[in-house]
Predict the structure.
Amino acid sequence: MSKVLMKGNEAIVRAAIAAGLDAFFGYPITPQNEIPEYMSKLMKEAGRVFVQAESEVAAINMVYGAAGAGARVMTSSSSVGIALKQEGISYIAGAELPCVIVSVMRAGPGLGGIQPSQADYFQATRGGGNGDYRVVVLAPESIQETVDLMKQAFDIADMYRNPVMVLADGLIGQMMESVDLDKPIKKRHIEPKNYITNGTDYHEGRHIVNSLGLDPVYLEKHNFALQSKYNRIIQHEVQYEMINMIHAEYVIVAYGTVSRIVRSAIETLTEMNIHVGLIRPISLWPYPKKAFDLIPKTCKGILVVEMSMGQMLDDVLISNKGRYKVGFYGRAGGMVPAPEEIVEAILHFDEKVVD
Amino acid sequence: MKKGKLTFDDESCKGCELCVSFCPVEILSLDKDRMNSSGYHLITVSDMNLCIGCANCAIVCPDSVIKVEVLNHE
Amino acid sequence: MAGYERTKGLTDTRTHYCPGCTHGMLHKLVAEVLEELGILGKSIGIASVGCSVFSYEYINTDFQQAPHGRACATATGIKRVLPDRIVFTYQGDGDLASIGIAETIHAANRGENITVIMANNATYGMTGGQMAPTSLVGQKTTTSQEGRNVLQHGNPMRVSEIFAQIEGAAYVERTSMHDIGNIRKTKKAIKKAFTYQMENKGFTLIEVISTCPVNWGMKPREALDWSKEHMLPIFPLGVYKDVMKP
């Protein structure tokens, strides 16, 4: 179908509606305000549920209720607001319910700034909620990819009965690119929902959505069951991209919009006859550890570039297993790196080595 | 005069004695010689013939222990 | 009514509540009302966090267990996507009026068609008797060991009065369970609240003066009498809002 020029935040909304979103619960926060704004209009036009909740805390709890009742449901927020949702996310994961959470990262910590950052990688992948749970985290680099990942997110959430986070940053939220909203995505088999609380008249027995397990024998079993689910996700849901790896002297690891800046830097370095490859994780959890086994022996070092003080860096250190030197280049506070800075970082790689 | 007949689900009783305190004809009491498997003492009826079937005991019971049958209406 | 027997609105599971705890009585009343109105099969309950966290084991409907204070937000999520079902929360005074006050007020403000059953026993029962927003001045609790005092702790919060101010609230009544007559009035109030939900009139809240014999250090009957003597003057019984009687 034809492509349309669209702002990232609007594309997120249209993709969700195309994926069959039944209910949106959200709250204003920059830089994703357009999401609840578009939702308020488009969900109403589609005859579906929209509530501007009284807080991000209330919104995630509305998501919990609606997900347990069997709906395809989503919330969106940014950094500070995502921090408020952590308890709710832990409950949703513990009760094994599906939902999609869009996080449009801004600078922190605390109130921070409204400019883009990637400083919520830990928040997204390590989770600030309590207990042994994981959230599937998908990080798009373009608006088209955002649309594709949004549609996938709902299917992944339903398949595994788990929260899925689409992790964007303020650049993606605010910029405009051309998008094909009808581009098809990979088909996933989803079981009918046999656990929903829609009233005992509508199913056998009583359904209880719950994460409480006071009996440690039961709760341990439940945790093991969650882990085997997470192991299945690790086996099947890793997504990443690798470019320019043949005879690469350096490998840059970057995700989201930073990877686009890195691509420009790689072009410049190629003109300087320095071969630099890129590993671009698309799923941040599960992290594409195996991609690091494919780094060629020509590699003199891995440079991690993030708009943070080094969060994905930890996953790179783990995946590298001490094989190559690892360097880091980061910007923070809402500053966005220019391609030249990344070129410089490669040229002075040894000054950037952290491990 | 209404008359009632009470049956007790002894295993559910927690011996809280609320029924005892609300019985208008004072025919209920805690029986310290009897106990259920949870260790709670059970309720005993001194004279079922005096029961007026008001169901106060059943209404107040937090554990739905008491079933009340009304034997005749006047 | 002729005779009395256990309602089908309760499951067969014996409750964990302390002997003489009013939760048992209140669960029974909710269960009887749902059965009598014929709505058990289309009702979804939301259990909160407190002694009544296990209400999902005892009341015979589908249930979701919500985070502490968030029951009304969870209820909103369910009711919005299943508007023809009956959705109710069962919350204590700490859950509703302390951590959950924002979610409860906003659900009322939006006029969500849900029914909120609040058990007010002036304490945090499950965690061992700490001070609650509704604890009385002078009441000794584990976190106000010399008794609640106004300068340090403020006054007990009057929930029904607050919710009566909110336009989205269709029916707000405060009742008690300290004697048979008041237990019957509580049941009538609960029935009215659910009937208003069935008629889509808006948010309904029944605040039920309850006891906590163990944390108050009293026998069950003594606790009911204490609630009548000490709580009713601070929390007067009555209908605070009825959208059908402006």
